Amino acid sequence: MQPDSDIDIDAETLRRFYIEDRLPMTEVAKRLGCSSVTVARRLRLHDIASRPRGPIPLRRTISAPQSGWSADLAWAIGLIATDGNLSPDGRHLVVRSKDRDLLETLRRCLGLTNRITATSNGRGGHYHTLQWSDRAFYLWLMDVGLTPAKSLTLAALSIPDEYFPDFFRGCIDGDGSIRVYTDRYHASKCERYVYERLYVSIVSASGTFIDWLQATVSRLARVTASLTVRRKRGCHPLWKLSYAKADSIRLIRWMYYAPIVPCLDRKRATAARFLSPLGFAHAPAGRPRVGWIYDAPRVKESNAAWFLSAPDARILSWGRGGAGDTRRPQKPLPARA
Asked: Which residue has the higher pLDDT, 1 or 263?
């Protein structure tokens, strides 16, 4: 073997191995038949900046500091903030879920290649785990506002307003729920008094985080929510933020603003029927939903004129010739005697 000082390593080869292929110095030295010390010296000789010691971060996972925010990144941060874990070692991140497709979406959004493993929870059930090491991304998440052992200390995060719908959708996919049920409480009075209820909620052990989430969503999506807290002896308080009725419908339209946004499929499927265009429903479940209109001011029920055209069609109108009313006129219900 030639002495290291006699080995000629050109700058182009070094850049290809070290910069483009992102190989560590030990691997570059192995391919060139020299020591890692020689590789370090040649890097200095050719004015090629060396990386800091430690694991090499994946390019996609540090896309925020390099190429700006994206919808995928904001959704991933929302999921990590609610359902993830930052290890105390300063480099490892873990997300666990019973939904494997959720972790596959997260892996795609962050450009990861790590395996998703199945683990028993000790009670006869199973969950899936995605774990990876990325010191640069870990430190960047801390700059955003995340911390290890964040369940009780999570507070306001540095999320741009433009990507807050994606971040909030990630939070809902993590510790939130979307629930639909048919309310027949008043059906005994009239068979038409049947309502299809939609509830969107999220829980957290950090009241500060919930307060910030409520204030920001209210400011951006123009919806209101109810805030409750459950206190149990020997346990930390659990805060719950809930959206119902017209606010919940406006909220999911704000969250699922496009059909291809990253999300947990089963939760979107639950909300899918409320994402239909105004005036149509898939089942004849009572009267139309107040405020079921997107990107427009809410309409109070007392000011709305309701017309029923068919068992499976519901139409909301502001009166004759209302804005956006391109449908044929419908026969109104007979006046109450």
From this structure: 263
Cβ atoms 59, 111 nearer than 8 A: yes
Yes or no: say if 81 and 170 are a contact pair by the CB < 8 Å rule: yes
144: enclosing H helix or E strand: helix 135-144
Helix (H, G, I), strand (E, B) or coil at 317: strand
CA neighbours closer than 13 Å in the CB half-sphere of residue 279: 13
pLDDT tens readout for residues 216-256: 999 999 999 999 999 888 888 899 999 988 899 999 999 99
Strand order in the sheet with 126-133: 84-86, 92-97, 126-133, 116-120
Burial degree of 77 (CB within 10 A; 0-12, 13-18, 19+): buried
- How many CB atoms are closer than 10 A to CB 42? 23
Q: How far apart are CA 115 and CA 103, in angstroms?
A: 10
Q: What is the mean pLDDT of the chain?
A: 77
Q: Give the percent of the chain with pLDDT over 70.
A: 75
CATH topology of domain 60-275: Endonuclease I-creI (3.10.28)
Name residues whose C-beta falls within 8 Å of residue 309's C-beta, 6 or more positions apart in sequence.
Answer: 315, 330
Helices (H) and strands (E) in the chain, counts: 11, 10
Measured CA to CA, the distance from residue 324 to residue 240 in angstroms comes to 37
DSSP string covering 281-293: -SS--SSPPTT--
How many angstroms separate the CA atoms of 135 and 139, rounded? 6
Residue 287 pLDDT greater than 60, yes or no: no
Domain definitions of the chain by residue range:
4-45, 60-275, 277-337
Dist CA 126 CA 118 (whole Å) = 7
